[in-house]
Amino acid sequence: MKIGAIPDIVVSRLPQYLQALNLMKLEGKQTTSSQELGERLGFSAAQVRKDLSQFGEFGKQGTGYSISYLSKQLQSILNIDRIWDIVLVGAGDLGHAIANYQGFTNRGFRIALILDNDPQKIGDKIGQLEIQDFALARELIRKAGIEIAMLTVPASVAQTVAEEVVQAGIKAILNYAPTPLKLPPNILVQYLDPLIQLQHMTYYLAK
Amino acid sequence: MKIGAIPDIVVSRLPQYLQALNLMKLEGKQTTSSQELGERLGFSAAQVRKDLSQFGEFGKQGTGYSISYLSKQLQSILNIDRIWDIVLVGAGDLGHAIANYQGFTNRGFRIALILDNDPQKIGDKIGQLEIQDFALARELIRKAGIEIAMLTVPASVAQTVAEEVVQAGIKAILNYAPTPLKLPPNILVQYLDPLIQLQHMTYYLAK
DNA sequence: TAGATTGTTAATCGATTAACAATC
DNA sequence: TAGATTGTTAATCGATTAACAATC
Known about the structure:
Two copies of one chain form a homodimer.
Chain A: H1 8-26, E1 31-32, H2 34-41, H3 45-53, E2 59-60, E3 64-66, H4 67-77, E4 84-89, H5 93-100, E5 109-116, E6 125-126, E7 129-133, H6 137-144, E8 148-151, H7 155-167, E9 172-175, E10 188-191, H8 194-202
Parallel strand pairs in A: 4-5, 4-8, 5-7, 8-9, 9-10
Antiparallel strand pairs in A: 1-3, 2-3, 6-7
Chain A binds a DNA duplex through α3 and β2.
């Protein structure tokens, strides 16, 4: 039996395992090994086995892991054996791109609410969804029982917007604005900043 | 004197230091301390000092770090004391959002070329730039001397597109498609996948 | 059975932190 | 000067890897 919390770095690899498994499923494969799974993602076989063993015994000696079974288990561990509703704040170009993206649903998520404060945009539709007034954020988010927000707003207002959605009951934020958010410690925040990743790579590019 | 390579995990924090410093600059601050810099980013003061000391002695005992000086040094270390041209492949919603984003220039980058293979899109303009035919990728990328690519293409073609731009001389790829790319080991690749980050957070959200 | 591969333990490796002399 | 804060060393902490008995 395992005691204590799972290291976050292990948790961060679970979605990657899941994604690789889903790809293998598409390829028609039935089973895989820690070796193969690791190779696809650049991890060692030992690390794959160690990570998975934190949550249970999912494999069989000699044959490896059933792809569909392990995939189901990981979905359950990550709490995506359900659909999570998301509120998207900011209906600019990036917001539109995200709202139109078809890849959320079969990976556990759905954009359920789109907010903006631009009167020009409020009332417009993106796909099936109407852009609604950010002034109504608290009411609408609470009513829909949404716990996850994606922010595609200008950096200058990201902090204010974040505080507002937290007031509305949001527990997790995926922030596309290049702004470190100061929020209560129980709020989960992740950042997506292409510049940070580009700058990471240029370190290694010859001068 | 330092010997040996800098750990990648240290390099990955440098863009974050730089971003925090730029924010402080905007706030009109002149100097900062390892303590303050760490607090903003969630790192310990000791870690900030340790990281920076890998590259030189940038601070002064008693007073800390000059924000503008440290910022310049980090820019130089990250090789962004210049502008890097980028080729953007995929002129869909996400490609448009990125091409219209104004934040690249003052952080060391410029979208210099946009490619797509859709005859409907080729010839259209995004801002000043005309979308050009991906069939001409090798020629155009080589002629422009571009080393960095951003891929906003469908997952199904990401691998093929990546191989093609590598043939054209691309050394670093920022991949928005949820596809692990198999490329020669000297090619730098970074991934931006919102689903991976959402799934990471749902692990911690109560069931 | 023989071969393959798991889950786990112990050893190794690497990253973070604490502490402090140096010094602005 | 006294207070503050650096850069660095040594200690601690945590993550990865190697190895192997168990077993499908």
